[in-house]
């Protein structure tokens, strides 16, 4: 089975436009590489920065409460046969929100399926760093290095940092570079001093096997959901979006699962469901979190996509 095609759960600064991957492309009558689709992808790759992500084990400096936060998110995906990596970064004084739902749990809702993976604007007011007047600077461009070689650079852009894609036209349009990142890639944050600065840091970019969703077609509430490429580390999680029925009576199920390769809906959730469900999308995130003084930095690798 081919890897899940690209989508995103990240937000742009200011007022992000929805990125609906295949759903949006179909609604606009475009293919997966249509101009508006790619423009939306480039404009939708980061805002909040993943409020639903599980807090991974932290490498913490003892005794200091963070007052400065940064997050760098790398997206691993494909457009046609072109594998790519893109990324953006943000730094500020407001901590990202807690994971929703909690690991191993599911949330039920009715009516339209509202999730940041489908519509970034739906979660705009919850964005941890949205609306701050003075973003923190991490210095000049952020770099990803493979030894002495620079793999990619995130340049200052508005209140944050973003990758300028290339060299091909396709990569420029998605704002990415050819992927995947090398196994020993290290993110270098140059840092900036002062009250609105973030300290210099060097952090290994999270790594994981290629995530490929395996469960296709309608599923029963008792069916075990499966994917390949499980990392089996506590710093990773998989978010699954399911839907039963259509219209106002539709039931939505959003679950956050450990990255073990399989997940079964909790019994309490299964009792609330009476028929088959569609798997709308599946996304995997792996992150590293470190702390230096009162500054906390999260480096995230994300992949997956919408299936419907």
What percentage of residues falls in helices of 4 or more residues?
A: under 10%
Tally of DSSP β-strands: 17
Task: Give the overall form.
Answer: globular
Number of helices: 4
Calculate the terminal CA-CA distance, rounded to whole Å.
16 Å
Structural class by secondary-structure content: mainly beta
Q: Which residues form runs of ≥5 with pLDDT under 50?
A: 1-62, 120-133
Order of helices and strands: HHEEEEEEEHEEEEEEEEHEE
Radius of gyration: 19 Å
Task: Tell me, rounded to a whole number, the average pLDDT.
Answer: 78
Q: Estimate the strand proportion.
A: 35-45%
Describe the structure concisely for a colleague.
This protein is mostly beta strands. The protein is built from 4 helices and 17 strands. The strands form 2 sheets. Strands 1, 2, 3, 4, 5, 6, 7, 8, 9, 10, 13, 14, 16 and 17 form a 14-stranded mixed beta sheet that branches. A 3-stranded antiparallel beta sheet has the order 11-12-15, with no helix packed on it.
Descriptive key words:
mainly beta; disordered N terminus; single chain; 14-stranded mixed sheet; 4 helices; 308 residues; 9% helix; 3-stranded antiparallel sheet
């Amino acid at each position: 089975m081919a890897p899940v095609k690209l989508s995103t759960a990240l937000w742009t600064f200011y007022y992000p436009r929805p990125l609906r991957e295949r759903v949006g492309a179909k609604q606009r009558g475009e293919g997966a590489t249509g101009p508006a689709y790619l423009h939306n992808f480039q404009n939708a790759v980061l805002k909040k920065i993943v409020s639903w992500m599980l807090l991974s084990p932290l490498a913490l400096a003892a005794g200091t409460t963070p007052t400065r936060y940064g997050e760098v998110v790398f997206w691993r995906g494909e457009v046609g046969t072109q594998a790519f990596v893109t990324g953006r970064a943000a730094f500020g004084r407001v901590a990202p929100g807690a994971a929703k739902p909690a690991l191993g749990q599911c949330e039920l809702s009715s009516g339209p399926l509202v999730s940041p993976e489908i519509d970034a604007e739906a979660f705009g007011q919850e964005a941890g760093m949205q609306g701050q007047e003075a973003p923190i600077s991490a210095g000049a461009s952020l770099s990803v290095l493979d030894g002495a070689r620079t793999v990619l650079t995130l340049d200052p852009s508005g209140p944050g940092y973003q990758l300028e894609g290339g060299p091909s036209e396709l990569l420029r349009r998605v704002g990415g570079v050819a992927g995947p990142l090398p196994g020993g890639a290290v993110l270098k944050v140059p840092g900036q001093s002062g009250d609105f600065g973030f300290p210099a840091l060097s952090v290994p970019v999270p790594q994981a096997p290629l995530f490929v969703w395996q469960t296709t077609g309608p599923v029963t509430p008792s069916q075990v959901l499966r994917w390949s490429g499980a990392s089996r580390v506590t710093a990773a999680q998989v978010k699954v979006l399911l839907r039963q029925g259509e219209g106002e009576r539709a039931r939505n199920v959003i679950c956050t699962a450990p990255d073990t390769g399989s997940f079964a809906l909790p019994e309490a959730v299964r009792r609330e469901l009476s028929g088959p469900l569609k798997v709308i999308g599946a996304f995997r995130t792996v992150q590293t979190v470190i702390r230096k003084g009162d500054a906390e930095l999260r480096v995230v690798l994300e992949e997956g996509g919408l299936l419907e």
